[in-house]
Write a structure and sequence with these properties.
Blueprint (H helix, E strand, L loop, with lengths): L5 E5 L10 H11 L3 E4 L4 H4 L9 H12 L3 E5 L7 H6 L26 H18 L5 E5 L15 H15 L2 H8 L26 H29 L4 E3 L1 E3 L7 H5 L5 E5 L5 H4 L3 H6 L8 H12 L4 E6 L17 H11 L4 E4 L25 H15 L11 E5 L1 H9 L8 H14 L4 E5 L10 E4 L7 H9 L3 E4 L19 H7 L2 E9 L5 E2 L8 E11 L4 E5 L5 E5 L5 E4 L1 E3 L1 H15 L10 E6 L2 E6 L5 E2 L1 H4 L3 E4 L3 E2 L4 E5 L2
Parallel strand pairs: 1-2, 1-9, 2-3, 3-4, 4-5, 6-7, 7-8, 8-9, 10-11, 10-12, 12-13, 13-19
Antiparallel strand pairs: 14-16, 15-16, 16-20, 17-18, 18-19, 21-22, 22-26, 23-25, 24-26
The structure holds beta-D-galactopyranose (GAL).
């Protein structure tokens, strides 16, 4: 039986005496680890003095790992430039919105726009790629580490100012065209030349949203260019190796689809318990999933990065136990680490790699658990890895990776647009996308999260397009082509690409040709206020965001809010649908169930803790809750390969569809 899935670990050999390295490598092999990521923060050890390289230790550890049959993911060290480099060119530091440079003494202290820093990165990456590119054990590379972490995509530096002006000149060709696009007559903001344009920080009150959106686009493009520079060098000297970057979950400051285009596979860093505080506001839900993480939020990212990597993706960092960086850091339920790994594999991950091998007794992350304790003895997650390794070889997934029938279109520009102009403080584009995603999951539907462009939405039975900022004719045409059922709204199509209200009012002419509606007013309501849909006893409501629509005669209105506004409507054929507010979980479920039904997508109401993922002939079932759950109905008539009809807390069942 061939298992293409693998386990990995993040290792910092430079933190431990060399005499320990052979023992570490042996223990890794014994646990069943295949990939070891090293090097991504080691610049000061690789080049202690400018131009003086010390690569011997790296060569030595690579050879030791190779000797145990392990493969290496070599990280480029560009997230941690050494002090001597910063002192040589202090203007490489990122500058905060307050205009202050952010200092040395942690990590990610660089500005993506700084051309001389890019040249330094190219230099160190070339040295590493030339030296280790052909090593048989170095089968994968990671560029940098978590682009944007610690809020570092937007930098208000001198380098960014110069780069932005040039980028604008290329885009608009003349200051007049820019003035028109941005609407600069408003408040006398007109420019006579590109050199007059400043960065959109430190203004008296809010800067022009079009100005801010372009700065965000520019900044995202710098991350793409920064990454591409490294990829090109690695590809040249290490042909055939897998090039990855480890993205951060729930993070939208740059376009992950755009960066991924240059990579061979995407990866992300999964910290289910660490993210709970950030992803979940409901106190009951927080309480229930305190020690396992939200049942939908790991899978949301798995489904997103599968699409970023065009089917090839990893979890580069998996939480092993309590972490150190969340507001509170509870320990996982027994079995949680196993469930997280299996869920990633169910969604098609090639590798799940743990962060980190051994808990560090020094530095910022002393309180972050690892597979080994600080004294080098085995910790709980080491045992989990060993168990997983045995289990993986027993399940053949070679026929997996089939595509879902439902797609959720996700768009980074929309996330920028709506954070620039939320209109209601609690409105979040990512939050809205998650409401729809959760409803699909609660109905047992497997989803692909795809970019909002014409090539990626074809062939699905149902496509959800919540909050997409600009709705172009091309995109609408692709959406309608195969008779897909489409759900738009709220906020979909409510701006042009220049951040202006469409002349025909939202949702803009392309959508209006298919569904004759106009958004005449927007009402944002502070939580916990809400507006019932139907009568007050229905349990369905809009909160945070709702719209008042007018509709043509051939529009079918199926639900109204308690105060009489249109809540949900569709065209005569029923394939173009619009939801006019942010639904609560119950109303999202009802709406999506109805559309799945129309699109011929089977649904089933799952127990609150149970989630499933279908992948080829295999169905994976997970219990994210603290109590056993009866799943007999879900496995009835199927060949059960793992687990049982009563699924234990954190339990995993796998069955083959007959
Ligand atoms: C990630 C980061 C790692 C480490 C880890 C701790 O965000 O990539 O270097 O800091 O968090 O959980």
């Amino acid at each position: 039986m061939t298992a293409k899935r693998a386990l990995g670990v993040c290792y910092y050999p430079e933190h431990w005496p060399q005499s320990r390295w052979p023992e570490d490598a042996r223990m890794m092999r014994q646990a069943g680890i295949r990939f070891v990521r090293i090097g991504e923060f080691a610049w000061s050890m690789l080049e202690p003095e400018p131009g003086q390289y010390d690569l011997d230790w790296l060569q030595q550890i690579i050879d030791i790992l190779h000797g145990e049959g392990l493969e290496i993911v070599l990280g480029t060290p560009t997230a941690t430039p050494p002090k001597w480099l910063v002192d040589r060119m202090p203007d490489m530091l990122p500058v905060g919105e307050d205009g202050q440079p952010r200092g040395f003494g942690s990590r990610r202290h660089y500005c993506f726009s700084h051309q001389a820093y890019r040249a330094e990165c190219a230099r160190i990456v070339t040295v590493l790629a030339k030296k280790f590119g052909a090593h048989p054990a170095v089968t994968a590379w990671q560029t940098d580490n978590e682009y944007g972490c610690h809020d570092t995509v937007l930098s208000y530096s001198g380098a960014a100012l110069l780069g932005f002006r040039e980028w604008l000149a290329q885009k608009y060709q003349s200051p007049q065209a820019l003035n028109r696009a941005w609407g600069n007559r408003f408040w006398s903001m007109e420019y006579r030349s590109f050199d007059e344009i400043e960065l959109p920080n430190a203004t008296v009150t809010e800067a022009n949203p079009a100005h801010r959106l372009d700065f965000q686009r520019y900044s995202s493009d710098q991350v793409v260019a920064f990454n591409r520079l490294q990829v090109d060098i690695i590809r040249k000297h290490a042909p055939g190796r897998t090039i990855l970057h480890n993205f951060m979950g729930s993070f939208t400051a740059f376009d992950h689809f755009a960066v991924s285009k240059d990579l061979d596979a995407a990866s992300w860093d999964s910290y289910p318990i660490g993210f709970l505080d950030r992803d979940v506001t409901d106190p009951e839900r927080r309480h229930r999933y305190l020690r396992v993480g939200d049942p939908d939020m790991q899978a949301f990212h798995h489904d997103l990065y599968r699409s970023c990597g065009r089917g090839r993706w990893w979890v580069m960092e998996q939480q092993p136990g309590p972490v150190n960086w969340a507001p509170h850091n509870p320990s996982p339920l027994p079995g949680a680490q196993r469930l997280w790994a299996w869920e990633a594999f169910a969604c098609g991950a090639e590798t799940v790699s743990y962060f980190r091998w051994r808990q560090a007794p020094f530095g910022q992350e002393q309180m972050h658990e690892a597979l080994l304790l600080p004294d080098g003895s085995i910790n709980e997650a080491y045992e989990t890895v060993r168990t997983l390794n045995e289990e993986l070889s027993g399940i053949d997934d070679s026929a997996g990776s089939s595509r879902a029938t439902v797609a959720l279109a996700f768009d980074y520009e929309s996330a920028w647009a709506w954070s620039i102009q939320p209109q209601g403080q609690s409105f979040s584009y990512l939050g809205l996308a998650k409401i729809y995603y959760r409803a699909l999951r609660a109905l047992g539907v497997t989803v692909d999260i795809v970019p909002a462009d014409p090539e990626h939405v074809k062939g699905y039975a149902l496509v959800l397009v919540p909050g997409l900022f600009e709705m172009t004719e091309d995109f609408c045409r692709a959406l309608g082509q195969d008779g897909q059922v489409v759900l738009a709204g709220p906020r979909t199509g409510s701006r042009t690409g220049d951040f202006a209200i469409p002349q025909t009012l939202p949702p803009g002419p392309a959508l209006q040709q298919r569904l004759d509606i106009k958004v005449r007013r927007v009402d944002t309501i502070p939580p916990p206020e809400f507006e019932p849909v139907g009568d007050a006893a229905s349990g369905f409501f809009f909160s945070t965001w709702r719209e008042f629509l007018s509709a043509g005669d051939d529009v079918v209105v199926t639900e109204r809010t308690a105060d009489g506004a249109i809540a949900f409507c569709h065209n005569q054929a029923g394939n173009w649908n619009y939801l006019a507010g942010q639904p609560n979980a119950a109303y999202a479920l009802k709406t999506i169930e109805r559309l799945c039904d129309r699109a011929g997508v089977p649904t089933t109401h799952l127990h609150q803790d149970i989630r499933i993922h279908d992948n080829g002939p295999l169905r994976y079932i997970f219990n994210h809750g603290p109590e056993p759950v009866d799943i007999a109905q879900l496995v009835a008539g199927k060949d059960v390969l793992m687990g049982s009809a009563i699924l234990s807390p954190c339990g995993v069942a796998i069955c083959r569809q007959q």
